[in-house]
Structure formats: C-alpha cells, structure tokens
Amino acid sequence: MEKSFVTLEQVTKIYGKGEVQIKAVDGIDLSIEKGEFAIIVGQSGAGKTTVLNILGGMDQATSGHVWVDGQDVAAYPARRLTAYRRDDVGFVFQFYNLVPNLTALENVELALQICKDPLDARDVLGEVGLGDRLGNFPAQLSGGEQQRVSIARALAKNPKLLLCDEPTGALDYQTGKSILKLLQDMCRQRGMTVIVITHNSALMPMADRVIQIKNGKVSSMEVNETPLPVEEIEW
Amino acid sequence: MKKALRKDFFMDIKKSFARFISIFFIVALGVAFFSGIQAASPDMRYSGDAYYDEMRLMDLKVMGTLGLTEEDLESLEQVKGVEMAEGGYALDVLSGEEGEQRVIHLESLGEEVNHVSVVHGRLPEKRGECLVDVQMADEEDLELGDQMEFHVEKDSILRQRVFTVVGTCSSPLYISYARGNTTLGSGEVSGYTYVTGDNFDRETYTVAYLLAKGAREQTSYTDMYENLVDKVKARVEDIEEERCQIRYDLVKGEAEQALADARKELEDGRSEAQEGLDEARQELEDGRKKIADARTEYADGLQQLEDGKKELEDGRKKLADARVQYQDGASQWTAAKNELDSQQERLNRSQEQTSQGYTAWNASKQEIDQKEQEYNTGQAQYEQGMASISQAKGELAAARERYGQFVASSGVADPQTEARFQAQEAQIQSQEQTLAQTRQQLDDAQQQLESGRRELDATKDQLDVAQAQINSGMAQLNSGRAQLAERQTQLNAAAEEIKANEAQLIQAEQEIQDNEEKLDRAVGEIEANEQKLQDGEAEYREAEQEAQEKIAEGEEKIAEAQKDVDAIEKPVWYVEDRSSLPEHSGYGDNADRIRNIGRVFPVLFFLVAALISLTTMTRMVEDERTQIGTLKALGYSKGAIASKYLGYALLATLGGSICGTLIGQKILPYIIITAYGIMYTHMSTVEIPYQMFYALVGSAAAVACTLLATLSACYKELMETPAALMRPASPQEGKRVLLEYIPFIWKRLDFTWKSTVRNLFRYKKRFFMTIIGIGGCTALMLVGYGLQDSIMDIGTLQYGELQHYDATVLQDEDSSPEEKAKLRDYLETDERIESSVQVYFQKMTASGKQKDTDIYLIVPEDTDGFSDLVTLRERGEQEGYTLEEAGVAISEKTARMLGAEPGDTIEMEMEDGISGKVKIGRICENYMSHYMYMTSLLFQEYFGEKPDLSDSLVVFQEEYREDPEQVGRDIMDYPAALSISYTGSIADQLENMLSSLDSVIVVLIVSAGMLAFVVLYNLNNINITERKRELATLKVLGFYDGEVSAYVFRENVLLTLIGAAFGAVLGIFLHRFVIVTVEVDAAMFGRTIYWPSFLYSVLFTVGFSAFVNLTMHFKLKKIDMVESLKSVE
Prior knowledge:
The complex is a heterodimer.
Chain A: E1 6-15, E2 22-32, E3 37-42, H1 48-55, E4 63-68, E5 71-72, H2 78-88, E6 89-92, H3 104-112, H4 121-127, H5 143-156, E7 161-165, H6 173-190, E8 193-198, E9 209-214, E10 217-223
Parallel strand pairs in A: 3-8, 3-9, 6-7, 7-8
Antiparallel strand pairs in A: 1-2, 1-4, 4-5, 9-10
Helix pairs in contact in A: 3-5, 4-5, 5-6
Chain B: H1 3-15, H2 17-54, E1 60-68, H3 70-78, E2 82-88, E3 90-95, E4 102-108, E5 117-121, E6 129-133, H4 134-140, E7 147-151, E8 162-170, E9 189-195, E10 205-212, H5 223-410, H6 415-567, E11 573-577, H7 584-623, H8 625-634, H9 638-677, H10 692-719, H11 722-726, H12 743-746, H13 751-762, H14 764-802, E12 807-811, H15 817-829, E13 833-847, E14 853-860, H16 863-869, E15 888-891, H17 892-898, E16 905-910, E17 915-924, E18 931-933, H18 936-943, E19 951-956, H19 965-972, E20 977-982, H20 983-1026, H21 1028-1036, H22 1041-1078, H23 1091-1118
Parallel strand pairs in B: 4-9, 6-8, 14-18, 15-17
Antiparallel strand pairs in B: 1-10, 1-11, 2-10, 3-4, 3-7, 5-8, 6-9, 7-8, 12-19, 12-20, 13-14, 13-16, 13-19, 15-18, 16-17
Helix pairs in contact in B: 1-2, 1-9, 2-7, 2-9, 2-10, 2-20, 5-6, 7-10, 7-14, 7-20, 7-22, 9-10, 9-20, 13-22, 14-20, 14-22, 14-23, 20-23, 22-23
C-alpha cells in the first residue's frame, strides 16, 4: 500500500510497567497526506496528546510504525529523534513557550540557528503580522501575539510538519480565531502539513481531514472535501 | 495542620527532596562548621585540661634561692587554696662526651603531682635507675639498660653519677618538643630524666609543686582557672616574706653558729699550739741542762783517766825492776847450769871412751871366738876329708879285687875299667895332698888363737879401772843438778809474778783506753745533743711561726666566712604557674588561634549557608504561588498556609542543624586536636564534649535565618488576593542589558548567549545570591589558602629576610671585665663565627593606649654592621633603611598595638626602673615578637645613661648553621656568657606550631570546598527547576542534550566565573580581616596572598562548578518534554 505523508500503523503506547499498565494509545492507524490541514480531536484523556508526542518525536511508541515522509520515526533512536524534531517538525504550544529573555525576533532566530534550511525570521514574523513588533519581549506582547511568535518560530524552521497543541487553548475567542486563520493560511499558502490537536470539535469543519480519537483508538477518520474558512466557523 | 495539608507537606518534601536535602546539607555544613570550629578551641582546652588533670600537673611551682624546708612545705600546704604541696629535687646536669655535651634536666619523681606516663620499661625503683624522656631516647637511640653518666660538680646535691635507663616516659611538664633553657652547656636543655628522690643528698628541696584547691575542676587556659591560680599564687607570695625570713634566719643562724664554732676551734687551736710550744720550750731547757751535766761528768772522767794513767806508769816501773832482778837470777842460773853441763860433757866423753874400749874389747873377743870357731870347723872338715879318702881307698880296692876276679874269671881285661881305676886312684892321691895342706893351716891358727887370748885379758883390766872413775864423777854431777833445779823453780816463780803484774798492767791500760774511748764518745754524744738542741730550737722557732701563720690563716678564713655569712642574702621565692612550663602557653595560644579563626571564618561560612537556604526557601514559596492561591481560595488561613513552608524550612534547617552539630562538634575538634597532636605528642587525651552553647547559637541562627526568609516570602505571597495568585506571576520583563548597546559585541553573540546574558541580569536577586554564594565560597577557600600563605610566611620572612643572626648571646652582668673581654674577643675571632655585633638587648615594657606591651629593645653598637644582621624595612618595600638619630624603629605590629605612628612618643620602662619617652622614627616589618631598635646616642638621650652594649647577636659560618649548638657550647664555656638562644630553634618551634595550624587550614579549605559544592549544586538545582519549561521547550525545538546543557551551563559558567572573581576580591579583604583577628599579640602574620592561592581557590570553585554541571547534565537529560505542554504554574 502506498504510504501517505504521515502514516501511523498500529501505534500503541503503554505507560508504566508491571501490574499497573495504562494503555494511552491502543493501536492507532491513521494517515495524513502532504499539505493537509488535519485536526485530531478527542476528549481529555482520549490519547490525543500521546499521539501528538509520538508524532512530534517527543515520545516513542511502545509498538507500531510512524511513517513521516517515508521514514519510520518510531524506529529512531533518541538522537535521531532530536534531529527529527529539529529539522522536520515545527511545534506550536498551547502556552506559546517563548523564551522570556529573548525578543520576538530572537525567539524565532533561536529556533533557526539550529536548523538546516531556515526561512528568514523577519519575513516570517512579517507574515504572521508582527513585522513591527520584532524587538519586543514576550512579556510586552499579548497572548495572541505571543502565539504568533510561537507559530513564526515553528514555521521559520521550514518544517515538514507543523504540530499545534491546543493553539487557541489559552486565547480568547477572537484571537484564537485569528491564530487558526493564520495556521490555515500557512497551510494553504505554503502547502505545509499542519496537524492541530484540540478537544474542540467545533473546529472540525475547517480541516481537510478530521481524525477522532476515543479511548486510545481512532474512532473515525474523515476527509473533508470542502473545508470552511475559519471566519465561517462559530463555537 | 490539616490532614490534607500535612499530606501535601510530606509529599512536597518527597517531591522536592533534592531541595530539601540541599537545605538540610547547607545548614548542616554551616552549623557543623560554625559550632565545630567554635567548639574546637574549648575542646582543645578541655583535652589539655583532662590530660593535665590526669597527670596531676602542678598548678604552681615554688623555688627558693635557699631551698625549701619541710616547714616551708607545711606552711605552703597551710596556705588557703592550696590542696597540697610536694617537695622535689631538680637540677640541670651535663651528659655525654666532651664537645657533644648535652644538658639534661634531672628531676625527682613526684608522688602526688606531675605524674609521668611510662612509654617503655618501668618506673625507677631504686638509686641509680632512671626514666628518660622518650623524645630524647628516640633522638639519642637510648635503650633500656643503657647507662647514662652525668657530669656534676663536686658539691652537687646529686649523689649518683651513673644511671641505668629502666624506662622512657612523657611528662606533663613538657607537652611539646621544647625542653627549656638552662645556664649550662649549649644553653638549651636536650631532655629530661626522672630518678628517685634518694639520689639527691640534701635536706632541703629545690622545688615545691603545688596543687590548688578546685583548680582541677576548672579548665586550664580559662580565666576561671587563671584567676583561681593567681589568687593562690598571690597568697603563696604573701607568706614568702615570712618564710624567707625564717629560712634566712635559720641559714644565717646556722652559718653564724658554724662560724662561732670555727672561731672557738681557732681559739682552741691557738692555745693548744701555745701549750705545745711551751712544752717544747721546757723540753729544750731540760736538754740544755742535761748537756751541761754531761759536760761536768765528762771532765771528772777525764781527771780519773789521768790518775789511772799515772798509776799505770808506776806499775810499769815496778815491773821493770822485777824483770831486772829476774834477769840476774836467770843469768846466774844459766852459768851454774853451763858448768854442770861441761862437767857432764867431760864425763860423757870419758864414758864414751870407756865404752869404746869395752866395744873394741868385745870386738877382739868376738874375733877370737870367730877364729876358734873357724878352726873347729876346719878341723871337722879335715877329719871328714880323711874319712872320705879312706872310704874311697876301700871302695877302690874292693872294685879292683872284683875286677881282678872278673878278669880272672872272664879272662877278658877291660881297658876302660882299668883307666877309671887309675883316674880314681889319682883323685884319691890329690885329695890326700890337699888334706895334708889343711892340716898345716889348722895348726898355725891354733897358735895365733892362744896369743890373742892373753892380750884380751890385759885390756879388760884397764877398762874396769876407768869405769870406776867415771861413776864417781857422775855422782858429783847429779847433786849439782839438783841444786840447779831448785834455783830453777825459784826463778820460774819470779817470772810468773812478773807475768801477772804485766797482765795487770795491760788490763789497766786497756781500761784506761776504754775510758778514753768512753770519754770520746761522751764528748761526741754531748756534741750531738748540743746539735740536737740547736735543731730543736730551730724547730721550735719554726713551729712557733707555723702556728702563728696557721692561726692567721684561720683568722682570715673566719673573716672570709664572716663575709660570706654577711653576704647571705635573704632568700627569694620564685612562684611560677604553669605558663612557665615550656610550650605550655603555646598550647593555649594555639587554642586561642583556633578560637580567633572560629570568630571569623565560620561566621562567614555560616552566612553563606544561611543565604543559600534563604534563597532556596524563597524560591520554594514563589514556586508554589498557585498552590498558595488555591489554598487561600479554599479558605485556609494564612497561618495554616505559612505553617507548611515554615514547617518545611524548620524541618530541613533543624534537621541540618542537629546533624551538623552532632557531626561537626565531634569531627572538626577531633581533626584539629589530632592535628595539634603532632606537636603535642603525649597529650593523648581528646575530650570533645558537645557544647550546647555553640550548637544552640548556630542552630538558632540557621533556623531564624531560614524561617524569617520563608516567613517574609510567604508574607509577600499571602498578601495578594487568591485570584492574583491563581494567575501566573506576571513574568518579569525581558530587559535590554547594557551590552546590547554595544552592537559590536552584541551582534556577535548568538541567541543562547544573548539569552544567557539577559537572564543573568533579569533575575537580579538570584544573580546576586549566586554571586555571593559562589563568591563567598571562593573567598573562604582563598582565606584558607591565604592564611596558609600568611602564616607559613612568618618564618621565612622573619628569619629569612629580616633577622639574619643565628644566635643571641646574653652576657652575665656579674662577670668580671676580663671575662667579658675574653668572650667578646672570642666572638670576634673564632673562625666559625662569621660576624657578631655587640648590642644592648633588654626587655622593656611600653605603655600603650589600651594595654602595655613587652618589647625587646635592641641597641646596636655599630649601625652599619647591624644592617647585615637585621634588615629594617617597611613592609612592601624592598629597600631597607639604617637606624637614624631622628627616632627609633619599632616593629609594625607593636606600633599598631600601641596605637602609635611615626612621630608619636611612647613611654618605655625597663625592669630595673629606668624609664624614658621614646620618639618613633620609623616602622619596620616584623612578624614575631615585638622589637624596637635605636642607636646608642638615642638611648642616651631617652634614658639618660649609656646602654651597656654587652650582649651579642651572632652569625655563624654557613656550615655551622645546621648545628649551631656546636659553637654555642664553646661560647657558653666562657663564664661571661649567661645564656644563648638560637634563632634556628625558635624558627623550628614556630614552624612546628604553624604546621599544625596548617592542617587546621586544610580543614577550612576542605569545608569551604564542600560548601562551595553544595551551594553550586543548590543554585543550579534551583536554576534548572525554575526553568524546566523553558528547557523542555528547547528540547522540543530540537536542541540536542548537549545544546540544552550548554544553554544552562553558559549561565552557570558565567555565574561561577563572576562569582569566583568576586570571591577573589572579597577574599582579599576577608583575608586581611581574618588575619588581623586571628593574629595573636606576639606575632604578625603575613599580609600577602600568593597567586597560587588565587589559582587554587578559583580552580576549585570552577572544578566544583564543572562537577555540579556534569551531574546537572544528567538531570537535564531527564527533563520530560511533556513539561513544555503544561500550563504555566
């Protein structure tokens, strides 16, 4: 079978050892095509964060395969995994996780200095709408602005995959919307594969592909032929 | 505390165990160090005291210049506060070969005080056995059973000279290496030896050892002890006057008695001599008389002799007369005799003739008788012949008949027979002829015979007539002879008489001769006696003179003795306490040094520890902001919430304090006391009780510090509303730092560096805490090393750069000028001595603003030569200066203690009351003791008299510096040399003392290092915990582990470096402060820290930092990236 850009095959993740074993993820199969805007949705504790961790190379699957661009990430050793995070994955956190000591520009550059083929930081910041806030420290920026910096930091690495963990979780409605819009635009404009993890099922219509997870298993995976623009979604 | 809270409390501890434990350890370290070092000094005293008590070391020693009697001892025991007094004997003796003689302090074994501890062998039990100093035994390779011979003067109190070593020991009187000084030999005592008391011959003790009542309960070296002993000492000194007077009276009385006896003896002697002389004179007189008598006697004898001689002469004359008479008689007798004799002769001749006649007659008669005989014989022969011829003729005729028959018968004739008949017939015929001749002859002879007979008868008649005549003549003669014989008898009697008289005379002569001889002898005798008498007289005169001389001598002696008796000075007591024992005070000084170190060093140490635990607790409270908010929102009271953190802090701090006290108060004093044990080898007792005071002070301070910090942090948080608390603390704004305005540098920094730099300045509190923490540790280590530098410096500086002389020779002021000159001459000429300078060397007291200071004043004779022996310079300068007339040079520390500066005037006082005001001209570098140098002109100006430049500073030749005693002994042989002290041995002593301090410093350094480690670990731990999220994010962003660590470490490295640099600077000041505090009065420590010390302290800090960072690296690796997904707390 022809593998998709991102394919998970029978991925399981078991925490704990011995008698108390918790299966966070129990045989997940999913695939996401290149350039898709995918949303993984599920209730708290469904295992979506685990999937994100495994996808992002932050954690290793107990068993199964994680194919990203033809490579089995699940088989990577720790160092290779770090290289994978470094070069192939951009990460957007719920709480932005900016380095408070660095300005917006520097926060982006911080990520760039370690990767092989980065974009220009100023350009990317301009693209996310912060062209005039380059020199500000995170503390001087609003939550949305900080998340934009965070996205810019992820994007500037020119990753194969952009993973976003509840990117709007700490933001108000409007700002959240604008961030989602930014992510969608980036996906459309740059052909970036974006995977957003959220518990908010209201976001589903804007995705190209929606994967629902329940109890550590994929309960459904649908391809949405007609995704809506963010502006048209309400929640 | 509510159950939930309690659970949360314990969970918190469990969760943040690293933090808990680091507070625990930091506090433990701080308290351990603080209370440990503080306790070390008293512990040293306790240990020393325990040892002294165990050995029953004396509290006071009393020595009297005239000895101490049993009564003195009794009185001493009566003194209030004296527990007991024991008398003993002690003296310094020489031992060993000439040239290598060492001085040994000989002491009697104490019974109640000053117990020795036997190391090998046993205690001496009888005379001639000795127990030697174990240190000396080791040095001299003395073995049990060896003999030791002591050289003592004749009138020494030591009865025994040779001792057998039966054991080695250590004595509480000598706690370290030094054995004290002496006036004998090399001037230094090499060791001590204990013997039994019966080896000494003296009714008075030389020393009395006292134990003070209650002193044992006090700790030595404390004021309590010293006050107590001082009081007793004062009381002992109070009875000194009285006892000395008694002793003086006794000794003086005895001496005077002895003197009186001597005087009496002299008197007796004088009269005895006089008597003898008188007797001798009498004897002489008698002799003289006897001689005179003898003379008279002799004269009488002589007279008698003369008389005898006269008598003898008479006798002789008489005898001569008698002889003449006798002679006459004799000659008459001889004439008569002669007549008789001629008659006799005639008679005899006649007789002879007659006799001849008879003889001739007889002869003729005989001849005739013979001739008759011959005739008779011839006659017989003839007849016989005639018979034989007749027979022959018959036989021939018979034969011729037979033949005629025969021829007739036979008819034959035989011619031969006829021839033989004819021959026979012829023969008979010849024989008949011869016979006929004989007949003739015989007839002639008969005729002759008859004529002879007739002649013979005639002669016979004539002869008979002559004979008759002769016979009558004979008769006449015989009567004449009878008469003569009578006469003869008469004559013989006369002769006899004469002979008798002669003999008498000879006898008388002999007698006279004898008497003469006797007289001669008598004369000789008399003369001899006269000679004798003369001799006797001379002898008498001599004896008289001698007696006079002897008496004069005796008188002189008595006068001298009188002088001696007059010179007996009232005795003085020397009452000394333990500080007079060698190195005894040194131990106390060492304890003081430790105490001084304890004053500064642990405080700093403790401060750092407190600061860090404070930071940690503050962090903790800040970290748990949300929880505080939640609890507050839930309605918990402020107290309840605060109690959790206070509890946490209390538990950690109190636990640490207790643990620190328990360990620190045992280990540190133990290490320090053991370190000093190298110097005080035999003080085996180590007493390290817990000292609650220091423990409480340390713990209370630690607890108070952390609790207050926690409380203030809690207070800050608790003041806020729960809502505000629930929100994350508004993050501190990133700020541009100064560096950013220097684009030249800033642009070259990468982002991690930028972040690092900004980070450093963003959390100012943490920054400073860290800098102070790390800097503090570096500073502490630096102080430790610096102390080592400073202290180790002293010896090198003092004896290497400042004082170059090898020995100080003090002169005996009482010696004669010749002796002094001799010594001086020797010091100048002996080739083993490189140079010597005459100085005035005197201990003086300078009155300062706070207290008086004892100073050694040295006034050199020759200032130029002096600069070879003592370098005068100001600290920090290379160039020295010479003494000037403008003012004295005073050692730096002294000036500081006196609070004086150049230009000031200080008052000086000498022991013998001379005093003066002295102007300070310059300060000089000096580390040991206090010195003042001035020219003799200045001395004269200040004190109004010339200094007695009689002592000497001496420099030995290079090769003798190792063993200066070799030369020192020779110097001490000069009577003018009172004592000698060697710079080398002072330097050695100093070095020993300081090397013990060295190990204490090692303790300081190690402790500081440990603290540095804990501090770094804790700060890093805080740093990492605080920034877990940031670090997790970096990980998620794809930073390799190394990169993540580097990101953190950069900060740590910078902090460490800045901290170390800060510490180095801080250390310099701290060191100076510590040095000044630690210094004892008698010494100045060096002020310089050498660069290796900086290097070591910084390197240790960096090294610990590196190590901590390495451990942190693993901690960083463990940071879960999931942290990044969590919300901000």
